[in-house]
Amino acid sequence: MRTLKWSNTFERAFKRALRNQPHLQKDIEDTLKLLIHNPFAPQLQTHKLKGKLAGSWACSAGYDLRIIFDFVKSEKQKEDDIFLIEIGTHDEVY
Predict the structure, then answer these.
(1) Is the pLDDT score of 72 beyond 90?
(2) Is residue 82 part of a domain?
(3) Residue 24, Cβ neighbours under 10 Å: how many?
(4) In Å, what is the CA distance from 45 to each residue of 33, 67, 78?
(5) CA 37 to chain centre
(6) Greatest CA separation found in the chain?
(7) Number of domains in the chain
(8) Domain that holds residue 80
């Protein structure tokens, strides 16, 4: 099973998102669980990014909430781990 690794930036943005919109907590938790099991599940709308974020990936965690992440090699397992970079609205993260 994949492991989620949280960047400091993601952690701060996560706390800010929950402080501003506490009703999003379940959506975010469900998205993170699905990301662990299947990062390319259709409901996540996972896509590769271009431009200044080239090489990273994004997925949807609700109507206007995005999670930016990278796949990183895992030393302990065959599947790559997921390094969470940023979370926020479309305008905040892009």
Answers:
(1) yes
(2) yes
(3) 18
(4) 15, 11, 24
(5) 13
(6) 37
(7) 1
(8) 4-89
Q: What is the spatial distance between Cα 14 and Cα 52, in angstroms, rounded to a whole number?
A: 22
Kindly state the tokens that stand for 7. Answer: 């960047």
In a domain? residue 94: no
Contact criterion met (CB below 8 Å) for 45 and 63: no
- Residue 63's pLDDT is 84
Report the 10 Å Cβ neighbour count for 76. 7
The pLDDT, as a whole number, for residue 9 is 97
Q: Count other C-beta atoms under 10 Å from residue 20's C-beta.
A: 8
CATH number of the domain within which 55 lies:
3.30.2310.20
pLDDT, tens digit, for every residue of 25-62? 999 999 999 999 999 999 999 999 999 999 999 999 98
Asked if pLDDT for residue 65 goes beyond 90, the answer is yes
